[in-house]
From TrEMBL:
Pfam families: NB-ARC, TIR, WHD_ROQ1. PANTHER family: DISEASE RESISTANCE PROTEIN (TIR-NBS CLASS)-RELATED, LEUCINE-RICH REPEAT-CONTAINING PROTEIN. This is TIR domain-containing protein. The keyword NAD applies. One of its GO terms (biological process) is signal transduction. The chain crosses the membrane at residues 12-32. InterPro entries: Apaf_helical (IPR042197), Disease_R_plants (IPR044974), LRR_dom_sf (IPR032675), NB-ARC (IPR002182), P-loop_NTPase (IPR027417), TIR_dom (IPR000157), Toll_tir_struct_dom_sf (IPR035897), WHD_ROQ1-like (IPR058192). Keywords: Leucine-rich repeat, Membrane, NAD, Repeat, Transmembrane, Transmembrane helix. The lineage of its organism: Eukaryota, Viridiplantae, Streptophyta, Embryophyta, Tracheophyta. Residues 72-234 form the TIR domain. One of its GO terms (molecular function) is ADP binding. The keyword Transmembrane applies.
């Protein structure tokens, strides 16, 4: 029994201990949690100190409070009431977020001491992506908290990607949601100070956020844990934004680890990792996988794909810079106003480089230059990383010495097998019956991912016997080259598919697939099935941006290169023995040398004048040629007996050429795009082309329509530019009944014979544009409604009765017409409709025209069309499916039906409708994004309701006196108002918070721009012809403004707030005639300013501020007559362009010595300028222009200007000497004119030292004595000299200089000279012969001009000048004879002007000049053989001696 009681006591004791254990654990947990929170807080002390210093520097009372940082900084915005939570959960959460380097905005309502800080708060909200609202008991008493919350909710409604995370701190969520308890008491107070609308907005915001799932903090012990949970959720959301989509990652782990190791993520150094390898090896996949793994460790990230293609675009560098800047700053279109790559580099240095970022640049090539795109690598903060992929390891190795390279090798067998099976079986492993075959194939594939994918796709769902056959083929291919790996898929194709693949690779990338399909069909290549095979096996793609446009052939670059390599391997040493040739050099060599070419199947080439040397025998060996694409200046060859296998001929001959003859027996496609002289007389045998499927003819001299093949094989017919000479011809369509596409444009025809258009039952596309008929076109189109397959109909004719009652086929999807549509409600498939220049009135609502029934119509355009509208215009008469509506030049349009039902309309344009008074239903266009009103008098009632509008253009709206308030157009980005002369006021400008571009042009009665100061997002402001504006609102808040242009504001007295334009890059002030000063204190702080243009500011005196703008790269000051001095410019060390002109009292320019970066200097119309000291120190100068500087007597030595490329001096009449031209080692152009006092220039040896000189022009310098060849007699006659680079020489107006040139022309050689101009003075006896004899050695001359040479009597033979295209002899009164014109085979223009002694021009020689286009013999009054010259017309345009035209100087 005792034992029993002992046991019972023990049991009671155990139960007691167990009962006390949970509370004890809770206490221990709280102690541990408090320590953990304390530790985490300590860990962020350093970050807090940094942030505190920022706040302190900004004058904040609270060291933890951050004032707004630069644009695009914040990720999380904390909305809270400071007295309630500042030292509680808000502080804990803030420190947790900062510790993870999440940029967080935290502000206290005590700091909001005025409305001035509110724009900064709104900006921070707009920048952030996640909002944490911390509701506390007294939260609702703060108007700032409620205002922020309302903006947060509005922002989240506009952008669903934004997230709101509510925390309820010691407050019941129901009180927040229903505004009860303390929230009810707070709102009772607010009702005494705020209007009902404001109260309603605040309550709605509380309702919405209070209903969200959040965290309820009921005691202080829970704060740390909840802050930890919130931080984790925030991090999770932010990390998701950086994840890239990739294919299923197979075998990537090792690659990822190696790249991560090279990134050295634990190091503080800036690192670049270069990933290289062959195409298709998986570089992009690895880069994406690494990016997804490590991006959370960086503040900002950017992944740029296809860099190589991006850089090939126009302004590709700027496009790439924009992409990177936008990604890192997390602002769309941030860099849209970047003018050049230097500007982009500056933004990257100033804004991007300070972040710790990860940037991946995928697929770069030789065009990628790190320093030209991103600037100096030393600009970036430590800890940042670049990953760059390329096929070329050399590109990566030249980036920097510290670039860590990683070569991607083939996949190991197990990973390769898994990847192969994913494409061949859509699973990770092969079925047991295919296991051996799969392993064998993977072994042969040698681990190339692209090969595994292509071969796997090839064998998908194929029988085992095919697998075995393909394996045998794979084993026979050598493994050395990548091409051979890719060739595996090629070798498994059938022969026909191979031919199609090689054709595409060599000729047809970017071509409409239907065109080559005709050729392939005739060659029995079965294009429909084989193109599908190529697509299924990922060897080609079919791309089209519009279902109604051609489907274009596309191919991966690697596969294209592989295809061309296959062709190259056919004969490495003898390219003319390959099946396809696309090299001009190879083609010309093959044809001229009559090489053995019976393997050639396709040629694409061009000749630029080389076609003359071709004879018909050159084509005798091309027996297998089926595709011939050639552009030639001249190709008058008869190859009709040789190219018997030709299927496709695409021929473009230069202006005035002749039509070659060709064989049509097997021709399937014929494209002749040339203005030939004989008007396609060679096409008379086209009717014999029994296999012709496609015929395209275009040219200016087409004189007759071809007779089409009797076989009725033609399916596509394009006829363009059949001119007036064809107007007496009939177009016989009797053999065109199988046409699918018919295009007739810019042709004249007498009539259509042989049937009607309606007989072409298979027609799918019909385009008739500017077709001029004499009769019966109406009858030919009468039965067009029977074309059951017609989808595209384009009719642009000026004949109001042509199709008045014609019914159109219901199959139409695209229709362009100038006529009323008789059966419009039946066209239920119509998607695009354009009515152009319809003279007959089109009713929008009657029994036959119920437009609203066309439920698929998306695009409607009415141009110069008369429309009748029912009396009740409030009815919706247009289909609600419309997305685009353009009304243009409908001059009689008084009213238009209501648009209120067009809920899908995004683009509305109304132009040149002068009597249209109102747009009914404008306010109902909820989806409208673009609105353009041009030269239309309508009011804009409802404009204020277009909340989705992003672009508004108003031009020439003369009757528009006021605009509805635009305060509600919060999404408007672009506003353009031009030539609205009656406009006196623009209301609501202050509400355009998102506006980025604002342009006003010629608003003469507009006196003020109230609200301009509130456009905080404005990037570009252009004000033109604002004659009534005297003052602008202060611009100090426009901190994003980059471009400010003010042009012709003659009464503008001052521009206030320039000092606040911290982002300003371009400032242009033109014709601001009342503006006197640009205060230094206003401009000195503009650290981003790059260019300043000041022109026509006639009262502007003070420019002292210019000397402080050290970031300037461009400075232009012209037409400022009161300016007597400029500040010293020596501090403008970044200036690259300086132009000063039209300042007649300015005597000197100081500080040139400091302009180390100056590349262009222009000084013009400066008659008082005497001194340009410092000129010799412009070591970067490339272009120098001095014009009309009469007081300038000398120039400093130019010997140090080694980079100068262009030197132009004109009308500097006081200039006596130019020193040290011999030091201009880079000079390419020297042009000195009308320097009347210039007496010395340079000598012969100096000229020879200018070994890069391309253009030399000297004239109008009568005192020039120390000239080109003044040192000729000092031993320079011993041997000939060569001026290799000189391409253009103009020597005129200086007697001594021309005589010197005549003496030296025998010794000088000009191998590159293409243009020579001589004359302007009388030269002595003996010099003329030297001059003319020397011309024979200039065989490269293309243009020769001789004028004012009175001593010339006979122009000797110039027959050696075989390249001469233009010959001008002007004002040669004693010229009696011209020899050797017949030898100038390239001559196009012959000008013999005022040669009064000339009696004959050798017409028989001119007949042989096939390229001759014009002959000018004005002023040749004694010419005797005019009748023989008339035979040259009409192919040669002749201006006769008494034509009456003014003869201008050369």
């Amino acid at each position: 029994m005792g034992c029993f009681y002992v046991e019972m006591d023990y049991m009671k004791w155990a139960v007691t201990v167990i009962g006390l254990l949970p509370p004890l654990l809770i206490i221990l947990y709280k102690l541990w949690l408090g320590r953990r929170i304390s530790n985490r807080a300590n860990n962020v002390d350093n970050a807090s100190r940094t942030l505190d210093s920022i706040a302190s520097a900004s004058g904040s009372a609270d060291s933890d409070t951050l004032l707004p940082l630069p644009f695009g900084e914040y990720e999380v915005f904390l909305n809270f009431r400071g007295p309630d939570t500042r030292y509680q959960i808000t502080d804990i959460l803030f420190r947790f977020l900062v510790n993870l380097k999440i940029r967080t905005f935290k502000d206290d309502d005590e700091l909001r001491k005025g409305e001035g800080i509110w724009p900064n708060l709104v900006e921070a909200i707009e920048q952030s992506k996640i909002y944490v609202t911390i509701f506390s008991e007294n939260y609702a008493y703060s108007k700032w908290c409620l205002k922020e919350l309302a903006v947060i909710v509005e922002r989240q409604e506009r952008n669903q990607g934004c997230i709101i995370l509510p925390i309820f701190y010691m407050v019941d969520p129901r009180d927040v949601r229903h505004q009860s308890g303390p929230y009810l008491r707070a709102f009772r107070q607010h009702e005494n100070f705020f209007d009902e609308e404001t109260i309603r907005i605040w309550k709605a915001a509380l309702n919405k956020v209070g209903a969200l799932k959040g965290w309820h903090v009921k005691s202080n012990d829970e704060q740390g844990a909840i802050a930890d949970l919130v931080t984790g959720l925030v991090w999770s959301h932010l990390s998701k934004n950086n994840v890239l989509e990739t294919d299923k990652l197979i075998g990537m782990d090792d690659h990822i680890e190696v790249v991560k190791e090279r990134l050295a993520l634990d190091s503080s150094c800036m690192t670049i990792v270069g990933i290289h390898g062959i195409g298709g090896i998986g570089k992009t996949t690895i880069a994406k996988a690494v990016y997804n793994k490590v991006s959370p460790q960086f503040d900002r990230c950017s992944f740029v794909e296809d860099v190589r293609e991006m850089l090939q675009q126009r302004d590709g560098i700027i496009i790439l810079q924009k992409h990177i800047i936008s990604d890192i700053l997390r602002v769309k279109n941030f860099a849209e106003s970047i003018a050049n790559n230097s500007a982009g580099i500056r933004i990257i240095k100033d804004r991007v480089s300070r972040f710790k970022f990860l940037i991946v640049l995928d697929d770069v090539d030789e065009k990628f230059r790190f320093d030209k795109i991103l600037g100096n690598i030393k600009n970036f903060v430590s800890g940042s990383r670049f990953i760059i992929t390329s096929r070329n390891v050399k590109v990566l190795s030249t980036l920097t010495d510290d670039c860590k390279l990683y070569k991607v090798l083939e996949m190991n067998h197990s990973h390769a097998l898994q990847l192969f099976c994913n494409h061949s079986f859509k699973q990770d492993s092969p079925p047991s019956s295919y296991e051996t075959l799969s392993n064998d194939i993977v072994s042969v594939a040698a681990g190339l991912p692209l090969t595994l994918k292509v071969v796997g796709s090839l064998l998908f769902q194929e029988e085992k016997v095919i697998w075995e056959d393909k394996l045998r083929q794979l084993k026979e291919i050598p493994e050395e080259e990548v091409v051979e790996r890719l060739k595996i898929s090629y070798d498994t194709l059938n022969e026909e598919a191979k031919q199609i693949f090689l054709d595409i690779a060599c000729f047809f990338i970017g071509e409409d697939k239907d065109l080559p399909s005709y050729m392939w069909s005739d060659c029995d290549f079965f294009p429909i099935s084989n193109i599908n095979i190529l697509r299924q096996r990922s060897m080609i793609e079919i791309a089209s941006h519009d279902s109604h446009k051609p489907q274009l052939l596309r191919m991966h670059d690697q596969l294209r290169d592989m295809g061309r390599e296959i062709v190259r391997q056919e004969s490495i040493r003898h390219p003319w023995q390959r099946s396809r040739i696309w090299s001009k050099k190879t083609t010309l060599d093959m044809l001229r040398n009559k090489k053995e070419t019976n393997r050639v199947e396709g040629i694409r080439t061009s000749y630029e004048g080389d076609g003359e040397g071709l004879e018909k025998e050159c084509f005798m060996n091309l027996s297998e040629l089926r595709y011939f694409d050639i552009i030639a200046t001249v190709l008058s060859v008869d190859f009709s007996s040789y190219l018997l296998n030709l299927r496709w001929l695409r021929l473009k001959i230069g202006y005035g050429g002749f039509m070659p003859k060709f064989c049509v027996e097997n021709l399937g496609i014929l494209e002749l795009l040339s203005p030939v002289k004989d008007g396609w007389k060679g096409l008379k045998h086209i009717k014999m082309a029994s296999k012709l499927k496609v015929l395209k003819l275009s040219g200016e001299f087409l004189i007759e329509y071809p007779q089409f093949p009797h076989s009725r094989s033609l399916e596509v017919l394009y006829l363009e530019n059949f001119g007036p000479q064809s107007s007496h011809e009939d177009l016989d369509i009797g053999n065109l009944l199988n046409l699918k596409v018919l295009l007739l444009r810019y042709c004249e025809v007498r009539s259509i014979t042989g049937g009607t258009i309606g007989m072409m039952k298979g027609l799918r596309e019909l385009n008739i544009t500017d077709l001029r008929f004499q009769k019966n076109l109406r009858e030919a189109l009468a039965d067009i409604g029977e074309l059951q397959f017609l989808e595209i109909l384009i009719v642009e004719l000026r004949n109001e009765n042509l199709m008045l009652d014609t019914k159109l086929p219901p199959s139409l999807k695209v229709l362009v017409t100038p006529f009323p549509i008789a059966n419009l409600p039946e066209l239920l498939e119509l998607e695009k409709l354009t009515v152009n220049e319809c003279e007959l009135k089109i009713p929008l609502a009657d029994s036959s025209n119920m437009w609203w029934k066309i439920s698929k119509l998306k695009h409607l355009k009415l141009y110069r069309t008369k429309i009748t509208i029912p009396i009740n215009t409030s009815l919706p008469l247009l289909p609600s499916s419309l997305t685009t509506l353009h009304i243009d030049s409908c001059s009689e349009l008084e009213c238009f039906p209501s648009l209120k039902n067009l809920e899908n309309l995004t683009d509305l344009s109304i132009e040149c409708c002068p009597i249209l008074k109102e747009i009914h239903g404008l306010g109902g266009l909820k989806s409208l994004r673009t609105l353009s009103i041009v030269q239309t008098a309508c009011n804009l009632d409802g404009l204020e309701s277009l909340h989705s509008l992003t672009s508004l253009k108003l031009t020439g709206c003369d009757a528009l006196e006021r605009l509805p308030s635009m305060a509600s157009l919060s999404k408007l980005l672009d506003l353009d108002i031009s030539f609205c002369d009656s406009l006196t006021e623009i209301q609501g400008l202050g509400g355009l918070k998102s506006l980025r571009k604002f342009r006003i042009f010629c608003a003469k009665n507009l006196t003020h721009l109230l609200g301009l100061e509130s456009m905080v997002e404005l990037v570009e402001l252009s004000l033109h012809t604002m004659v009534s504006i005297r003052r602008l609102p202060s611009l100090s808040k426009l901190q994003n403004l980059k471009k400010l242009i003010v042009t012709y504001a003659p009464n503008l007295l001052e521009i206030e707030g320039l000092a606040g334009l911290k982002s300003l890059e371009h400032l242009s002030l033109t014709d601001c005639r009342s503006l006197e000063r640009l205060p230094a204190d206003q401009l000195s702080g503009l650290k981003q300013l790059e260019s300043v243009y000041i022109s026509g500011c006639t009262k502007l005196i003070d420019r002292s501020s210019l000397s402080t703008l050290q970031t300037l790269t461009t400075l232009l000051i012209i037409q400022c007559p009161k300016l007597e001095w400029l500040p010293n410019l020596e501090n403008l060390e970044n200036l690259t362009y300086l132009s000063i002109g039209g300042c007649p009292f300015l005597k000197e320019i100081l500080g040139l010595v400091g302009l180390k970066s100056l590349e262009t200097l222009r000084i013009c119309d400066m008659n008082a300028l005497r001194n340009v000291d410092g000129f010799e120190s412009l070591y970067s100068l490339k272009s120098l222009t001095l014009r009309c500087c009469d007081a300038l007597e000398r120039l400093p030595s130019m010997g140090s200007l080694s980079k100068l490329l262009n030197l132009y001096i004109s009308n500097c009449h006081g200039l006596t000497e130019i020193q040290d031209l011999g030091g201009l080692e880079s000079l390419q152009m020297l042009d000195i004119h009308d320097a009347k006092s210039l007496s010395g220039l340079f000598g012969f040896e100096t000229l020879l030292s200018l070994n890069k000189l391309e253009i030399l022009k000297i004239g109008g310098c009568p005192r020039l004595t120390s000239l080109l060849f003044h040192d000729l007699d000092d031993g320079c006659q011993s041997q000939a000299a060569v001026l290799d680079s000189l391409q253009e020489l103009n020597v005129c107006g200086t007697t001594l200089m021309l005589q010197s040139f005549c003496r030296m022309i025998q010794l000088l050689m000009f191998p590159s000279l293409t243009e020579l101009t001589l004359g302007g003075v009388k030269i002595g006896n003996g010099y003329t012969e030297l001059l003319l004899d020397g011309l024979e050695s200039m065989e490269g001359l293309v243009r020769l001009h001789l004028y004012d040479l009175a001593s010339i009597r006979i122009l000797p033979s110039l027959s050696k000048l075989g390249n001469l295209e233009r010959l001008t002899v002007k004002n040669a009164p004693n010229l009696q004879e011209i020899e050797g014109l017949g030898g100038l085979k390239s001559l196009k223009e012959l000008h013999l002007i005022r040669c009064t002694s000339l009696e004959s021009v050798p017409a028989d020689e001119l007949y042989g000049l096939e390229r001759l286009e014009s002959l000018d013999i004005r002023g040749c009054t004694n010419l005797k053989n005019r009748s023989s010259l008339r035979k040259l017309e009409p192919t040669v345009k002749i201006q006769w001696p008494n034509s009456g035209h003014t003869v201008r100087g050369v």
